[in-house]
Amino acid sequence: MTAGGAAAVIEIRKLWSVFHAPGRRFVIHKDLDLTVRAGEVVSIVGGSGTGKTVLLRQILGLEQPERGEIRVLGEPVGRTARRGAASRIGMLFQHGALFSAFSVLENIAFPLRELKTLPPKLVRDAAMVKLRMVGLKPEDADKMPADLSGGMIKRVALARALIMDPPLLLLDEPTAGLDPDSSDGFVRLLRSLHRDLGLTVVMVTHDLDTLYELSTRIAVLAEQRVIVTGPPREVIAFQHPFVHDFFLGERGQRAMELLREYPFTI
Ligand SMILES: Nc1ncnc2c1ncn2[C@@H]1O[C@H](COP(=O)(O)OP(=O)(O)OP(=O)(O)O)[C@@H](O)[C@H]1O
């Protein structure tokens, strides 16, 4: 896919995010620009507190920036939110807990059931399709969240995020807290869903393996804006202290191994 010529799914222009405390003003984003095109998997990386999660929440319409514009699928975010963001944007929250009193299937079906436009049988069928899509088995449908592994909880949350078939998926630390095997399995699932559903994905992650396995492009947040964006290979070569520490510091060995392993993909 040549993302350069694809339609813009997210356009962020001159964004300012400011938080106020008594007598103080914290500028998190200052004139931040970012465009995400259809079919891309854009990973946002940055130091702690650089406003990665705030940015995802603003794209979703859960928080309003102080200034600037965010358009999702051509519409300003406020309007997207009013028209039902769930049908346009799926979100996998880092601590996206499931409803503990609901079964797996009820959790997956929840956003669709809330719409109150479809008969229960259709809602159930749609949720079963998504349950299979994320690699769970029909016999998992009636399990309760307390009986699930960490990897299964992520899969249920992902199925719930996809229940309305959104073209855009936001992921906040998708593999955080998973053991290496579950993490690998979840990354493989995300990669096949991206390919098979033609999703556009924006992800925040600190995990280099997840980053390299999934990203078509990386955007680095520092100095209150996106300081560099491009394919992983280009971003790694960018001269900046954060980029150097993040990609080539203690974890640099792994980065170099991946560069040797996948010379044409990253
Ligand atoms: N509602 C809020 N009110 C005040 N400050 C906030 C609010 N939400 C976020 N912040 C502050 O904005 C900054 C950016 O927060 P955010 O959670 O987006 O960072 P992050 O880049 O995701 O960090 P991390 O990698 O540590 O998760 C932090 O300093 C945070 O304390």
Automatic annotation (TrEMBL):
Residues 10-248 form the ABC transporter domain. The keyword ATP-binding applies. Keywords: ATP-binding, Cell membrane, Membrane, Nucleotide-binding, Transport. One of its GO terms (molecular function) is ATP binding. This is Candidate ABC transporter, ATP-binding component. PANTHER family: PROTEIN TRIGALACTOSYLDIACYLGLYCEROL 3, CHLOROPLASTIC (PTHR43023:SF3). Pfam families: ABC_tran. It comes from Ramlibacter tataouinensis (strain ATCC BAA-407 / DSM 14655 / LMG 21543 / TTB310). PROSITE patterns: ABC_TRANSPORTER_1, ABC_TRANSPORTER_2. Signal peptide: none annotated. Gene3D superfamilies: P-loop containing nucleotide triphosphate hydrolases. InterPro entries: AAA+_ATPase (IPR003593), ABC_transporter-like_ATP-bd (IPR003439), ABC_transporter-like_CS (IPR017871), P-loop_NTPase (IPR027417).
